[in-house]
Amino acid sequence: MGMERAQDRRMTAAGRCARALLALALLVLFVPGPAQAAAPHIAARLVAESPAPLPGGSTTVALVMTPEPGWHGYWSNGGDAGFGMQVEWNLPDGVTVAPFRYPVPEALILFGMMNHVYEHPYALLADVRVDRSVASGSDLTLTGIANWLACTDKICVPEKAVISVAMKAGDGAIAPATRRQFDGWRARLPQPLDRPGKWERRGDTLRFAVPLPAGTALDTPHLFLATRDLADYAAPQAFSRNGDQLIVETRARGETTGVAEGLLKLSDGRGLSLRFEPGTVPAAGKAVAAASRPDAALFWTALAGAILGGLILNLMPCVFPILSLKALSLARSGGVAREAKVEALAYTAGAVATALLLGGALLALRAAGEQVGWAFQLQHPASILILLVLACATTLNLLGLYALPSIGGGQALAARGGAAGGFWTGALAAFVATPCSGPLLGAALGATLVLPAWAALPIFGGLGLGIALPFLAVGFIPALRRRLPRPGPWMDRFRRWMALPMGLTAVALAWLLWRQAGPTGLFAALSAAALAGALAFAAGRAQRHGRAVAPLFALLLLLVPLALWTNHAARAGGTAPTDATAFSPDALVRARASGKPVFVYFTADWCLSCKANEAGAIEREAVQAAFDKAGVTTLVGDWTNGNPIITRTLAEHGRNSVPLYLWYAPGAARPEILPQILTPGLLIGKAQRR
């Protein structure tokens, strides 16, 4: 056996030598002449996210690589026969450039050699930091000489180009189109795993343990190692499951020790970057098929969490004003079984359909490279403007200023009975419920980050079903219907009282527009409210004189240019509390370096659960005193207008919605995720334990 193993090692060494000689031959035989060098097979272009980076801050540059058909470039570790990008920078004073970050590569075997490649256009991203001492208006043009390897399945050509991008120190402004382009490139980067894995060598076998939830979708997974001379790149990789550990086994190559770096390719081009520490790797478990199915337990747990979370949302103030409309409708029906069942089913259909549409739009935007999460539509002032008009119109209707016509829009249908009224009330309830993220809901929606689209969509549908459950129960359980009050004069008084929460909702939406877009948003809110009031008054007069009112609602088209203007004026992010520091990865690193506890919370002005926690726990005087005594640093991530950095951070912690609360104890490797409902005692206890 020993002789056979030694012979295998000699054959493996011979194979490696042959492959190295073949790679050298390819490089030597096919090095291009001067004429060829003038026309690279992979075009390189340097782009800056902000042409005017702010002194004391940073921006991102992208080195966009566009291969000709049939050609490919390489990852940072090119594998057996390639190498990544190498740049010799010529930097202005006060400017530093971080190493490039690479998107998820593909595995390509040629002549028995494993290559880690890109066969399509790709972008390498690097952070550029500008020192605070740099004067505004200074020339910050970046130039460098880039070297890379371009290959086909037959030849390899080392290529070189001078790359450059003009920049001047300024205000850090980023054009919306450029931001979207960079967000698309960032979406293709691997997400960092928040926990290290383990690796060990047993004889000629290299074993890795990746801490990965059992339900994570895997479609032809591959482990790319950035640490060189550790594994035989071309050797088969065996994947198996041991609980929440993904075990990877392959053939070892060298004698490397210490921490190893790698990238695990998942499904749909997604990937996770992680580090492996030397340690004991659990035994291999159930083999992972080439196209792994998501774990059934994760799916059913997430679905149950979404349904229960949606049910709890009925108690949230963001949904209650809409439910008042349906309460009036059910009371008006007098408990008639058939009418109640029809309305309950229609209400459920509306809530589920809206949740599925929002979830489908979210998944589609992610697939297109956008960094978005749940409630993404509320990050756009145009959506808030629409909700404001609906809230104003509903308030005035409940006050009796006018009666809704039978052919109005979604809000008009919401106030009617029958199937149409039930459907649109359910749709409206699901739409306005998105600012709330109650217990169970954050983890349930976070599961959609690792589930494939076909498994993630039912989770969103479960949210809609949970919202509709109370009315579904009333519609089909006679005992509940018998408890409904009988129709009578009280209904008119109740209806007028329900105008109060709806009016407060309109005021809150106006405040949110002001927070999102400043004076422009406030002007838009007041204009929308005035237009809704004028239309309601005109509709009421027309109805009293027996005239049609439907044409009046065409005037709502006047809101279209106002909405576009408001969207254009929206500020990037909300306003963090004055006693807190805005969250950024750099700010978190600096805060943790102090050796003191760090409390990070992610919020949005439209998130009522967030604001309730802030007023009831975070901003309480006793909590702040305990934080001051313990030296706790508080960082705030404001997601009001959307922020791709915050979206990625939420995803890294298994969330795609706010609130998210993280507690970093001194010296802890990873944060503790706190409950979505905070209490002063919980935060004070954390600060005192330190």
UniProtKB/TrEMBL annotation:
It comes from the Bacteria. Residues 45-161 form the Thiol:disulfide interchange protein DsbD N-terminal domain. GO terms for biological process: cell redox homeostasis. Keywords: Membrane, Oxidoreductase, Signal, Transmembrane, Transmembrane helix. Gene3D superfamilies: Glutaredoxin (3.40.30.10). GO terms for molecular function: protein-disulfide reductase [NAD(P)H] activity. Its EC number is 1.8.1.8. The chain crosses the membrane at residues 297-323, 344-364, 384-404, 413-433, 453-477, 497-514, 520-539, 548-565. Residues 1-37 form the signal peptide. InterPro entries: DsbD_gamma, DsbDN, Thioredoxin-like_sf. Pfam families: DsbD_N, Thioredoxin_7. This is Thiol:disulfide interchange protein.
